[in-house]
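Lesson 9: reading folded outputs for more than one chain in a single document. The general rule is that every protein is listed as its sequence immediately followed by its structure tokens, and records are never interleaved. Here is the first one.
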Amino acid sequence: MPELPEVEALADHLRRHAVGLTVGRVDIASLSVLKTFDPPVSALIGGTVTGAHRWAKYLGLQVGDLHLITHLSRAGWLRWSDKLSPAPLKPGKGPIALRVRLSDPANPEDAPGFDLTEAGTQKRLAVWLVDDPMKVPQIAALGPDALSLGPGELAAALQGNGGRIKTVITDQKVIAGIGNAYSDEILHVAKLSPFATAGKLTDAQLSALHDAMISVLTDAVVRSVGQGAAMLKGEKRSGLRVHAKTGLPCPVCGDTVREVSFVDKSFQYCPTCQTGGRILADRRMSKLLK
């Protein structure tokens, strides 16, 4: 799933490549992705792209006073092309859910633009067209952006929360922008167990968590921004230290990276760095060890 750094990089890519161009056509191959109908997507046609924005893990293309906003969910992506195929999309065929075709008055023969795609059978990609981003209920409900939080604000956000820290920092209503992958990385850098109780962290642990959150996300943004959209997934994978590294040695201590699995996802951690050497029982087993 694209998280804060990748979505920021995609927004940057759109700012550099789409701003100033005109929307020539919007094709929808999957009606289920569109969550709003007023205004219709045809309202974008003829408008000039004026910006691109990020709200946590939500990406928006601004066209005049309208915002075409998407949440890429687990298997969605934005695929940019300097010259899109002229062939119309076939509804229900292939991974493309929506296509935005742009035009450049200076180069009328070109047809740049992008596709919103989604792999797999679980179709969760969502698109809204609104005149105010706060009209997207999920954006209106977001907590503070992870990169905007100071140490005191992070402590306040976690105060009294009895949930496990892994779950809490990925709750978008508490802290916005962090998902499964970067939460693993943040907790590894902070040397915190994923099962530590959020509201019971010591001052030293809170300070370590804040430093890790800012450093991990900032580093990922720096590495990602400026990359082509097609390169971002590989860039993300190359920068991960424990997430999706089950069975490999921890790059800090050399211990074996372990995994805890759930029904539809898993997370990774280093026992030596994070849990005092204790192994957290896999959810596929009968109990958990804290």
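And here is the second record, again sequence then tokens.
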Amino acid sequence: MNAQMNQTSTDVAVLIGRFQPFHRGHVVLLQRALVSAPHVVLVLGSSFQARNAKNPFTWEERAAMIGATLSEEDRARVSFVAVRDYYDDSLWSAAVRKAVAQSAPDAAHVALVGHFKDASSYYLNHFPKWENIVVESERAIDATCVRRVFFEAEDLDISLSVLDDMVPPAVRQYLKAWALLPHYAALVEEHRRIVAYKTAWKSAPYPPIFTTADAVVVSGGNVLLIRRGGYPGKGQWAVPGGFVEQRERLLHAAIRELAEETKLALLGATLEGMLVDVKVFDHPDRSQRGRTITHAHFFDLQTENLPPVEASDDASHAAWIPIVELAGMEDQFFEDHFHILDSFLSLSEEPS
């Protein structure tokens, strides 16, 4: 890729995406950004989280993947910034603006490059002070299809040959090397489980909306966490919780799941008296399994003593983790569970 820049008043062009992975549709957008401004900022979304079948590549891997497709001249004009998922549109857009301002502090005229492919492109409306450069989609390629080919083919060479028309050659080579890493086999299995899970609900008359309840329990500067024993998110840290049963209140579901997964030896009535707050987490993309709305219940045991816990049911491990350590564990959490903790415990600095 080598784009010749046109004369323009735009100081910086911004391209936002997850790029999981970078494909030929993204190439068109990046080329347009490169001819629109002398400096291009690529915002790599969904950063700082644990790998999963929807977000298999770290932001550093995505930056390397994209950089490999650029000429040396173009590479010198591109900056990469990593932004986490806040599951809150105002926080997320503020974080993007802050990251772009730090990458291009002297930019007076900023343009946002993108195309409106579907409802997932609504984010382009969150930057009213930036010029919009709308690019028509020339190729019906999306990263979901690329990941499906990459994870579902029984023969990797066949999979990569199918991807020839979907991704740049440099990305194809990157994927071939990346598939030799231990992450690949685990994500192939996670992808298979999620496909099976969604297939089981295809006969439902309406797309299902699942309801779960979680328990955030703190005691003496620690929070009670589990490691997930199965897919999705096998081995990742999570707050205890699970699906609400048919005849169950939300609070009772949170307390039941807490007892089943950690064997925390406190009566339900005792925990009810220690309930401090309840928050709903309903972002449509918070779970790979489908639309899942969770109700997180925050309990403060108000004691320096740590009650004994033992993993059971869906958990492979249960432990009290010092709250001061959580910020450094962000990339080890299942789905949005770090952000659930963050909302109660203020673990990360909010963008200004």
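What the second record shows: The chain has two domains: 12-183, 210-345.
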